[in-house]
Structures
1.
Amino acid sequence: MPMATTIETGPSSVDRAAALKEFDETKAGVKGLVDSGITSIPSIFHHPNLHITSTTSHLSIPTIDFSLPRPIVVDLIRSASINWGFFQLINHGIPLSTIQTTISTFRSFNELPTNVRCKHYKRGMEGGFSYSSNVDLYKSVAASWRDTIQIMTGPARPDLNLIPEVCRMELVAWDERAKEVARELMGMMCEGLGVGVGRMEEMTCLEGRLMACHYYPPCPEPDQTMGTAVHTDPCALTLLVEDQVGGLQVKQEGEDGEEFWVDVKPVPGALVINVGDLLQIMSNDTYKSVEHRVRANSEQDARVSIAIFYNPGKRGELDLYGPLPELISSEKPAVYRNFTMREFMGTFFGKELRSKSLVECFKL
Ligand SMILES: O=C(O)CCC(=O)C(=O)O
Ligand SMILES: [Fe+2]
């Protein structure tokens, strides 16, 4: 005999699920809401307990000049990766115009007529491409004020026909160009750890690449929502370019243990680099994967940022990742156990984007 059950989900969560679906099915994203002329944001975007804590404006993440002599750059990268987990890289050899073109073609895609843009809307990653508003829309507590194209550029090539033509060649070229700087950076990060320069590349950390192109439309109620909720990146390394709007913030802890947010001030032509969870683990907690977030856009212009996440491409059941054996000793025992990429990514996708604890799941 069936028992009477109490349905746990109250009317509000039923309404919320319906509202999410309705929004998703417009295929017009947050840009569509803004185009419709709304002056307040739908409740699915309301972030609970939103404390936009005051930022300490006199602090900023380190800026590193890549054209300095190599031993100096290695030292600077090492200390930034230990103390901040984030830095800006200048004089890296990629012309400002290349970065500007990449950003502006992606902006052009978002500013196409809605009926053209909507045709690309697709949440699944088949063909190595997706375009959706909030990649974690159905998992997160609250939606955020942004739309995103994701392209899996490696190890397999994506189906290029899926990438909108206005930005196709530029995004593919950007992936290639950025990879060369990422290669150099990984070598220097290894050197900073005292392991072989080619160690990360041999572990195929340049091969698994996901490009996330974010469009943050102006928000009519920026104090009610976020652009990207607080998170750490699950990858080994992230390389990001952004326009001049700003909004990215990095969490820091003062000597007294008090936490505060530091604004990443856009620097024309700079690459924003950060350590991901996987590199924190591989470095056996020497380098830090630091929490960050993006404020909802309170400016007049939409903000564009393009992140590339570098991950191991080799993902067999025998390909194990964990602290590099060279870094383990009796004085510095392994902090983490080994795991496969399948287990690592499975754990990531089983959680919400906002929680800190991916590395915690692999602690010994
Ligand atoms: O848009 C940004 O500046 C940061 C985006 C980000 O943190 C991410 O995609 O993981
Ligand atoms: Fe991130």
2.
Amino acid sequence: MEKSIVLENLNFGYDKKILNNINLEITRGEFIGIVGPNGAGKSTLLKIIIGQLKPNSGRVKILENNGKDKSIGYLKQMNIEVGVSFPITPLEIVMLNLYNQMGLMKVPNKKIKNMALNALSMVNLQEKAYYNYNNMSGGEQQRVLIAKELVKNSNILIFDEPTAGIDQDSKELLFNILDHLNKKHNITIIIVTHELEFSKKYFNRILKLENGELKDYSEVNIW
Ligand SMILES: Nc1ncnc2c1ncn2[C@@H]1O[C@H](COP(=O)(O)OP(=O)(O)OP(=O)(O)O)[C@@H](O)[C@H]1O
């Protein structure tokens, strides 16, 4: 089995210790749910995996590249709350991310646009490509932000509570899209969630972070 992410003896603390000797191997194409009490360090762990925070000791290895860009698609907590103060369309949001990554003048506009439209179609939003993002529902906004990550051709997606604040139908749609991306495109997905009852059927593996330790929670939880 091809490894995707390996965490080795990770330790991290702000003023007090948060992660205590975490070891984890994630296989390519896994769909992982991470649960745990408030303040356990779930967001901190994700930030260490994406390289936003450096561990005090230990290593993070990202092994997937496969000719693709090595970037990880990451959605931080509470994106929906962060409004945009000017009118912008989903297409522009996704295109801007591509320009950011590829450099403004290097790629023809038409190609960028097609790549962005393709990413929006992967989250069922091709018909709303020209809407005003600010007038879209929380669930739709969340899907735009996922398209923004998908367009970078990442084969790892890491989302911190992506269903917080969106209605039940949007949650189902969001998870069905993620399920499709996981199964059909073999994208490795890690999701932090407080909504395990709803989401557990999608995960291959559930991990619980508590008291600095990360433990397999799949069996305990499912029955
Ligand atoms: N930048 C920071 N500086 C100092 N302490 C921090 C910082 N960020 C988080 N913490 C603390 O570290 C602990 C873990 O925070 P983290 O956000 O990782 O937890 P979490 O499990 O994601 O919580 P929640 O489920 O509430 O989102 C908390 O006690 C938090 O207050």
